Amino acid sequence: MTGNGDIADHSLVYDVVVVGGGNAALCAAIAARRAGASVIVLEAASKFYRGGNTRHTRNMRCAHDAATATLSGPYTEDEFWDDLLRVTEGQTNEQLARMMIRESKEMLTWIVEQGVRFQPSLGGTLSLGRTNSFFLGGGRAMLNALYLTAERLGVEVHYESEVVALDIDQARFCAAIVRRGDRRIRIRGKALVAAAGGFESNIDKLVEGWGEIARNFLIRGTPNNRGTVLDLLLGAGVDSIGDPTQCHAVAIDARAPKYDGGIITRLDCIVFGIVVNNKAERFYDEGEDVWPKRYAIWGRLVAAQPDQIAYIIFDSKSADLFMPSLYPAVAAASIGELAGQLGLDPDRLSATVAQFNAAVRDGTFNPDILDDCHTEGLTPTKSHWARRIDTGPYYAYPVRPGITFTYLGVRVDHEARMMMKGGGPADNMYAAGEMMAGNVLGRGYAAGIGMTIGSVFGRIAGRGAARHAA
Asked: Residues in domain FAD-dependent oxidoreductase 2 FAD-binding (predicted)?
């Protein structure tokens, strides 16, 4: 513990120390407390900003066998698995993924028992009414319900308590060193649940994997997820999993703040128009698949473009088909005028739009299914929802990569126990949420699955930590 100055010992030894304050951490804390353990939650943020990226969520994806009051139909375990396999392109631990999907069926009931309420799905282009459960009041309301339940059960919650060191002796957690203002305090515990998120808000760490282009990325979520706890665990011999460049990355409004812009900066209109780079050139099929299975590829696609900037171009026929961003679209009476406002070459953008329009083959437009409106003789093609951009006024959104969370994390087993380098499990250390998401998400994303990972593995980790402490 050199370099930390004087460290005061907390008077109590807790059964379970939970590091983090979002969905995964709270599910772990509640599960451990309901199993009889004494629990402390260490949240680096203030009370107002508690909850990490969970504050910005809207829904979670769970398997279920029949329609409910808020879900329009069944979503079987096999269909969930097929969706996950498709978006990850096979880069997932099948045993853990299938276990998560199976356990997710119980979460719809369990999480309601913790005070969380659901509502019918929102409108827009997500088309998730059958597969995903939407939180009544959004992520912050969901968090408030979990915190209220945790505190009523006797879980201690300490805010502005950043973990800066971990006392780990040969795969066994002994204590967390917490910074509170100018003080450092040792919090001892019989078991650890690490649920402190990824490292997406640490730009220098992103640069290590992505190179200098990462400095143009925007961070959709909390500025607190700097990867400190993850680095401490990996430095103590915990095995890692995942690629440092793999992450949940979507296209968000380029005018969004550097951090914490949240879900209202995301653009869901890509399927209704075309996307061009700063050379006014298209670079990918905007209508490849339904939006919930493709929206999370667009951050990476934009990251590969010059200056990490792109522009969504559409016309008035599509202006009311999606949930708008926080910022108004750029509008103009002509494509040339629109290009001028975006700083693009007017002739090039006009030619790109004209080429696209000429390639469109009419069909029956339907924003809710894979329709038959497509292009022919155009590279890249647009497979579905292709309509001519020919009805003014014309609109555009500038977009940049918006990073939600990173996939490089700690390897876990089916009990959410951390695995040590060399293959054996840790004695009393568990992980949940974003910092172990790479076990399930080797790449890609399907809407709502981050919350599934957090809640399912959080509950498993909390129960396991409580059993160990007992």
From this structure: 15-442
Q: Do 205 and 349 have their domain in common?
A: no
Name the E strands within 53-172.
59-61, 118-119, 132-135, 156-158, 162-168
What is the chain's percent helix, strand, coil content, to nearest 5? 35, 25, 40
Of the chain, the end-to-end C-alpha distance in Å amounts to 28
* Residue 443 near residue 91 (C-beta atoms within 8 A): yes
Report the 10 Å Cβ neighbour count for 191.
Answer: 29
Are both 317 and 447 inside the same structural domain?
no
Q: How many other C-beta atoms are found inside a 10 Å radius of the C-beta of residue 243?
A: 14
Q: Which residue from 227, 194, 245 is spatially nearest to 426, judged by alpha carbons?
A: 194
Residue 164 lies in a domain: yes
Peptide bond into 393 cis (omega under 30): yes
Work out whether strand 425-431 and strand 183-194 pair parallel, antiparallel, or are unpaired.
parallel
Domain hosting residue 327, numbered range: 249-402
Report how far residue 117's alpha carbon sits from residue 53's, in angstroms, rounded to the nearest whole number.
Answer: 19
Q: Are 44 and 132 in contact (CB under 8 A)?
A: no
What is the CATH number for 281? 3.90.700.10
**Beta strands at 409-410 and 173-180: parallel, antiparallel or unpaired:** unpaired
Residues 71-106: pLDDT tens digits? 999 999 999 999 999 999 999 999 999 999 999 999
Q: How far is CA 431 from CA 20, 192, 236, 289, 334, in A?
A: 10, 8, 14, 33, 53
Half-sphere exposure of 189 (CA within 13 A, CB side): 34
For 255-278, the pLDDT digits (tens) are: 999 999 988 898 999 999 999 999
User: Which two structure tokens, joined as six digits, stand for 393?
Assistant: 């006024």
Angle at alpha carbon of residue 174, lines to 47 and 464, rounded to 5°: 75
Cα dihedral 132→136→137→138 (10° resolution): -20
Strands 173-180 and 162-168: antiparallel
| pTM for the predicted model, two decimal places | 0.92
87-99 exposure pattern, b = at least 16 Cβ within 10 A, e = fewer: bbeebbbeebbbb
